């Protein structure tokens, strides 16, 4: 999978009242700064891994269907996954 975003892992740092998210493999690049809550920072930091997981789910479902081993994902599940991927990529498919 090619990345237009800073590749994972992303880490959360907290210095007093300032919470930041940094890209570890990108020379500690600041991804998001002065985030309002630790919960939001953790969600942001998990985004690359969640995006990769969504791609893995779709690929696995497609492989099962193409190999005749099973059914596709329920339509609502596939739609939600595909929408989340599009949104993560800025609306691109």
Instruction: Outline the low-pLDDT stretches.
Output: none
Rg, nearest Å: 16 Å
Query: What portion of residues belong to β-strands?
Result: 15-25%
What is the makeup of the main sheet? 3 strands, antiparallel
- Tertiary shape: elongated
**How do the SSEs run, as a string of H and E?**
EEEHH
Coarse structural class: alpha+beta
Q: What number is the mean pLDDT?
A: 85
Spatial strand sequence of the major β-sheet: 1-2-3
How far apart the termini lie comes to 13 Å
What is the total number of structural domains?
1
Explain the overall architecture.
The protein is an alpha+beta fold and 93 residues long. The chain has one domain (10-88). The protein contains two helices and three strands; from the N terminus they run E-E-E-H-H. A three-stranded antiparallel β-sheet has the order 1-2-3, with helices on one face. The relative contact order is 0.13.
